[in-house]
Design goal:
This protein folds into three domains: 30 residues; 36 residues, no CATH class; 58 residues, SH3 type barrels (Roll), CATH 2.30.30. It is built from three helices and seven strands; from the N terminus they run αααβββββββ. The strands form two sheets. It has a four-stranded antiparallel beta sheet with strand order 4-5-6-7, with no helix packed on it. Strand 6 and strand 7 form a beta hairpin. The radius of gyration is 35 Å and the shape is flat.
């Protein structure tokens, strides 16, 4: 056995001995404190005041009426504790863009020519994997372009292929 391995084993042994000694010392000190009636950690006692039953009933009615926990496990469209005015003001969904595929350029890899991309006033050249205005280009083939976004997947095709 070389000296480095022997030194490493000796250091691990000393570490274990010191750790076991520290644990025993901590147990000894805590047991002597308990025997002497020393400081024991306990929860502080607060004076108990009687709570009126009417206030508890009113609080329970408010909690049940607000319905903070829903079985559907989806967020409520109305914020918790909101008044009737907030329920009337719902946010409208954004309109879906009118995407038009003008053409497909090249060979593998294909490039799509798309009009109507949100945030772009002009025709846009798109590649597979691009993200434009919250829309992701999933794939491009010689016949169509798949665009995913919002809550819809569009399959765009060229109506009149160029001859």
């Amino acid at each position: 056995m070389n000296r480095l391995a022997l030194l490493r084993a000796l250091l691990w042994l000393l570490t274990a001995v010191f750790f076991a000694g520290a644990v025993e010392r901590a147990r000894f000190v805590s047991s002597t404190n308990v025997q002497r009636g020393g400081s024991q950690t306990a929860a502080p006692a607060f004076p108990q005041l009687p709570i009126a039953a009417e206030s508890l009933n009113a609080l329970a009615d408010h909690i049940v009426g607000a319905d903070a926990f829903r079985i559907t496990r989806r967020p409520s469209p109305v914020p918790f504790g909101a008044t009737a005015d907030a329920r009337a003001a719902t946010v409208p969904k954004p309109s879906k863009p009118a995407l038009v595929l003008s053409g497909i350029v090249g060979g593998p890899p294909w490039i799509g020519v798309v009009d109507g991309v949100p945030g772009h006033d002009q025709t846009v050249l798109v590649h597979s994997g691009d993200t434009l205005g919250g829309l992701r280009i999933r794939s491009i083939t010689k016949d169509h372009v798949l665009v995913a976004g919002l809550d819809t997947v569009w399959r765009l095709t060229v109506h009149q292929p160029w001859q």
